[in-house]
Amino acid sequence: MKIIYLKRRLSRRQLLYGIIVLALVPFLVTYMGQLTVDSGKEQGREKSVLSRHIFMLNDPVQKRFDERNKHLKYECSRLKNYYVAQNSEAAVKEHLVLNRKNKIVYCAIEKIGCTFWKRIFQILSGWRNVTNPFSIRGIQAYEGFSTAKRLPFDKIYQLLRMSTKFMFVREPFERLLSGYVDKIYSPNTAYWNFIGKYIVKSFRENPTNVSLECGHDVTFPEFVEYFVYSQNSNERRDAHFVPSFEHCRPCEIDYDYIGKLETFQEDTFHILKKLDLEDMIKFSDFQNETETDALVDTVDYVFSMKRAIVNCMPFTKGLYRAWRKLQIRGILSKHVKFPYPTDRDVDVTPGQFKDALFAAHAQSGDKESRKKNREEAMLEAYSTVSPILMERLRDALLIDSSLFGYEKIPKKLLELKYTVPDNGGFRYFDIS
């Protein structure tokens, strides 16, 4: 009887276990399936991360950024005892442009595409409801974005730590010449008044009364003399000429990307891609839009200062210098002649000058043929600087040259030997 009873108990237990197992089967199948899916997803994520890593390793633009950062860190450690920035902390803060929503910090440096990038930050802030920064005029690019100017340092530190940071640099001798062309040679009455008159008074023997009153005819050697003096004395310095390292403190702030004007388009597209901004910022034809932007910008600026210009020279002479600036930049061919007389005033409207510039641009040939202008203009300008002054200039620009991987003095300038190139009789700089 006991045996029969035990058998019945075992049968009931087995039946109960069987029911439990059958009930659990669907759950086990679902669970194992989910494990397989999750495992597949994880493997997919790993493959995705690996693919991105492999892409970055094979990406020549990213490699270039990595090499620049590596070089910078080495030079920062090497120049530790020589690295002295005269710019105030407030000036540095003012150059840090912020977009908190996208966690981006950009250090803006004058004469290195900062007007372009400020327009991008206008779009990111919602100030402009457009996607193409070239649809915003350059003359309007001075508001509508945030800077670190009024932020305490603890807040700035947090922003820098959490954000992607980038800056752009440029060959120092070219940047200095660009500053001269844009602010001193080409009509800019604000700079004539603040810097030009100071240079004439301080660095010219026997200046005329007109030159002292206007500051409109500063030569490039006089400008270089001023720059070297201002760097050594910390007097009358201006952001458009001050070395790049002072604006951005790259040995103190760890920038993720250091772009260069020499590779501006490639570097810009790469940074926009890394910041995931390709849908927000779009271009039609970057090169053509850049040149069109420069033409329109030239008209806007020169006519905005017309009243002040005519106090110092015929307005057509001011237009002539603006025309020359575009030839120096390689936007207009040097073979397209200026269409107005320069010794007297004629009535020229903004629309007429704009039409003349666009017609000249259409006749100027391809970009490669115009690129020679930039080098010719640079050689012409620096050929007028004495060897002794060139050595002093080299020392004033040495930290920028070292930190960002440029020659202490460009080889092509060393070969000048104080001799003005012929350029077929063409002269880029005429201050008469």
Structure report:
- The structure is a single chain.
- The protein has a five-stranded mixed β-sheet, with helices on both faces.
- The protein has helices spanning 2-58, 60-78, 89-95, 114-125, 153-162, 172-185, 189-203, 209-214, 220-233, 244-248, 264-274, 286-304, 306-309, 315-328, 350-362, 367-382, 387-396, 398-403, 411-414; strands spanning 96-99, 104-107, 146-147, 164-169, 257-260.
- Helix 9 (220-233) crosses helix 17 (387-396) and helix 12 (286-304) runs antiparallel to helix 15 (350-362).
- The chain is 59% helix and 5% strand.
- It has three domains: 2-58; 83-169 and 251-274, no CATH class; 173-238 and 286-425, no CATH class.
- The chain has 19 helices and five strands.
- The radius of gyration is 31 Å and the shape is globular.
- It is mainly α.
- The model is unreliable at 1-42 and 44-55 (pLDDT under 50).
- A hairpin with a 4-residue loop joins strand 1 and strand 2 (104-107).
